[in-house]
Amino acid sequence: MSSIIDTFIAPPCTEEIEIVYQDEHLLLINKPAGLLSLSGKNPQNLDSVHHRLVKTFPGCTLVHRLDFGTSGLMVIARNKAMNAALCQQFSQRSVTKEYNALLCGHLEHDQGVIDAAIAKDPALFPRMSICAILGKPARSRYQVIERFYHECEDGTLLPLTRVALSPETGRTHQLRIHCQQLGHPIWGCDLYGGRLLPGTEPISRLMLHASALHFVHPITEEWITARSNSPF
């Protein structure tokens, strides 16, 4: 079996974490793009959402993660009991998540479903792969918001589609690899083809933002709906 060597070093992130909501049980935050959710094994990758928040909120833990390049909403548990209750909602898929993304090219259909199992492949690390045999089931929905052209620095017009993405499962890199499978990778995605088209190379970030979270507060039993406007 191939051994995995992670050589990634995160560049410094100067943006602050925005706290959208807080009570004694949980936090809702807006993660900036370019910040790890959890500190890496390499000491140079110490800075992360958890590393920053635990200084102010001792005992807090991550219920779920966002990719390094993804910005947007995350829910943070402030104690172990809350973590267990929220993790149960995520595992039962009762949490509704929505993302805003810019995809390369113009999608043919206004909406659709991507159903493609995702597997780890040490030979491809850190990329995941589509594999019907070894992969875990993964399903995502997309809805087109707008199709437009972005004028690049050299004057060429880059066709882009803004979409709302709703993952029904929570596999690693799910939305990124599913959009590639669709033939329209997320603009700025270095792992799954989002920097291959002419004009896509200079983009500074992954154009993926966690824009909405909908779940039940385990203590108050009230529905919480959080929204965050896309920064792009």
**Percent of residues in helical segments?**
10-25%
Helical region count? 3
- Kindly name the structural category: mainly beta
Question: What is the residue-mean pLDDT, rounded to a whole number?
Answer: 94
Q: How is the biggest beta sheet arranged?
A: 10 strands, mixed
Low-pLDDT parts are: none
DSSP strand tally:
12
Q: Give the radius of gyration.
A: 18 Å
Task: Note the beta-strand portion.
Answer: 25-35%
N- to C-terminal separation? 41 Å
Pattern of helices and strands: EEHEEHEEEEEEHEE
- Any idea what the shape is? globular
Keywords: Isomerase
Family: Belongs to the pseudouridine synthase RluA family.
Domain Pseudouridine synthase RsuA/RluA-like: 25-181
EC number: 5.4.99.-
Topology:
Elements: E1 18-22, E2 26-31, H1 49-56, E3 61-62, E4 71-77, H2 80-91, E5 96-104, E6 111-115, E7 118-120, E8 128-130, E9 139-151, E10 157-167, H3 174-182, E11 208-216, E12 223-227
Parallel strand pairs: 4-11
Antiparallel strand pairs: 1-2, 2-4, 3-4, 5-10, 5-11, 6-9, 7-8, 9-10, 11-12
Question: What does this protein structure show overall?
Answer:
With 232 residues, the protein is mostly beta strands. The chain is built from three helices and twelve strands, in the order ββαββαββββββαββ. The protein has helices spanning 49-56, 80-91, 174-182; strands at residues 18-22, 26-31, 61-62, 71-77, 96-104, 111-115, 118-120, 128-130, 139-151, 157-167, 208-216, 223-227. The strands form two sheets. Strands 1, 2, 3, 4, 5, 6, 9, 10, 11 and 12 form a ten-stranded mixed beta sheet that branches. The chain has a two-stranded antiparallel ribbon with strand order 7-8. A hairpin with an 8-residue loop joins strand 3 (61-62) and strand 4 (71-77). It is globular and about 50 Å long. The model has no long low-confidence stretch (mean pLDDT 94).
